[in-house]
Specification:
The complex is a heterodimer of chains A (about 260) and B (about 140). Chain A contains 14 helices and four strands. With about 260 residues, chain A is of the alpha+beta class. Chain A has one domain (about 40-260). Chain B has about 140 residues and is mainly alpha-helical. Chain B has one domain (about 1-140). Chain B starts with a strand and ends with a helix. Classes of the chains: A alpha+beta (about 260), B mainly alpha (about 140).
Chain lengths: ~260, ~140
């Protein structure tokens, strides 16, 4: 019995020691795994964005872009996020929708900006999408819905056709799973609080209290189920927090943004 | 790792062939079963069950082959599901993952070399006892 124990420890102990020693080596760096992953994500993100650019009208209004960018910058600076990585795109579309594409493409439909009543609501939506980007939810969702093998195929082929369309549809018109959505909501609230933006208007936007206008196609709300519940827990998180809201855009700048979008 | 030992009796040609085949079972399944670790184990289990009531020499080597396959199965299964979780779940490849795959590969290589060697020696009528698996088999298999 002693002999068996001794030999068992020797064999499997050697395995464990070898495993421990080998795991100290930087294989990830050696095989450039991060670079390959980033390269794949960049390729997928660009292909998706190219498709949207081709099928929809892009807003090139510099004042509108600058205004939305200033909201993004405020959230990023106060939360130590590199805003240079985030690529903002405004699409002229009546749908109330915003979504993230791989490689930090942030797409906001003008319909969503029109439906928001103040910068805090818009900041909440932007914060939510930034949270998805920062937590790698976008790629996780694609791997789950489409599969890693398909993603690699898209990266390695020029075009990608139907698969890219499917990817674009998945990202723009379906929500992430409940766990990821809640994670993004909570993180968005934390971003807003750190950026001195009141999260309550965002909660109200989710609950649909401020947006009763049925002219808009409410894709962003319809694809994110249980909006009222989300509004409730966001208010619960924000409760008791010491927030001193500081405006990002002046009243006239906000009105100018809405006017630019309407035009 | 492997030592030539003296067996209780001199096995017949028929027995040495059967005993050698128990090791070959895992090799044949290896080629057909990659990358599913379960197929190797199932093949070895089936062979063991078929020869459970055979002579002591055959039974002994079927048991040793099965026990070694069990360890390989456990190690390979961990590697297999870890890979699946990366491909279909959260795509995070870490240094630990690379280290495990290398260790798993080396373990399989050593086991493969040992299995081939033991299959050849057993066919010649030599009794080979592996470290740990040999004494464990002695405990399980009584003549």
């Amino acid at each position: 019995m002693k002999k068996i124990s001794y030999q068992y420890v020797l064999i499997f102990g050697s395995f464990a020691v070898l495993f421990f020693c080998l795991s100290q080596i930087n294989w990830v760096g050696m095989f450039k795994v991060e670079q390959i992953t980033k390269k794949t994500e960049k390729s997928i993100g660009n292909k998706c964005w190219d498709l949207f650019k081709k099928e929809q009208k892009v807003s090139d209004n510099p004042d509108a872009i600058r205004a939305v960018d200033s909201i993004i910058n405020r959230i990023c600076i106060d939360n130590n996020i590199d805003s240079k990585n985030i690529q903002l795109h405004l699409l002229i579309n009546n749908e109330v929708n915003a979504f993230a594409l791989p490689d930090n493409h942030l797409v906001i439909y003008t319909g969503l900006i029109e439906s928001t009543e103040n910068e805090s609501q818009l900041a909440g939506v932007i914060g939510h999408e930034i949270a998805h980007m920062q937590n790698n939810h976008v790629i996780k969702k694609l791997v789950k819905e489409i599969g890693m093998a398909a993603l690699i195929t898209i990266t390695n082929t020029s075009g990608g056709g139907e698969m890219v369309k499917e990817m674009a549809k998945t990202l723009s018109s379906s929500a992430y799973d409940r766990k990821l959505e809640k994670e993004a909501d909570i993180q968005a609230v934390n971003y807003l609080i750190k950026a001195n933006i009141d999260p309550i208007p965002f909660a109200n936007f989710l609950s649909g209290l401020d947006t009763t206008n049925t002219d808009y196609s409410m894709s962003w709300l319809n694809t994110h189920p249980d909006s009222k519940e989300r509004g409730r827990y966001i208010k619960a998180i924000a409760k008791g927090k010491n927030i001193h809201p500081v405006t990002i855009l002046s009243k006239s700048s906000w009105e100018q943004l809405k006017a630019n979008i309407n035009n | 790792m492997k030592e030539k030992a003296v067996f209780a009796y001199t096995p017949t040609d028929f027995e040495t062939e059967k005993a050698s085949n128990s090791y070959l079972m895992s090799l044949l399944a290896l080629i057909a079963g990659l990358p599913l670790p379960i197929i190797n184990l199932i093949a070895t289990i089936i062979f063991y069950l078929l020869h459970k009531k055979s002579t002591y020499f055959v039974k002994w080597h079927c048991t040793q082959a099965l026990l070694s396959q069990l360890s390989v199965f456990i190690i390979n299964t961990i590697g297999f599901w870890w890979t699946i979780s990366i491909v279909f779940g959260t795509p995070t490849i870490t240094n630990a993952y690379f280290a495990y795959i290398i260790c798993m590969f080396l373990f399989n290589l050593i086991e493969l070399a040992g299995t081939i060697y033991t299959a050849i020696e057993t066919r010649k009528g030599n009794h080979i006892e592996w470290w740990f698996y040999g004494p464990l088999t002695n405990m399980i298999c009584k003549s």
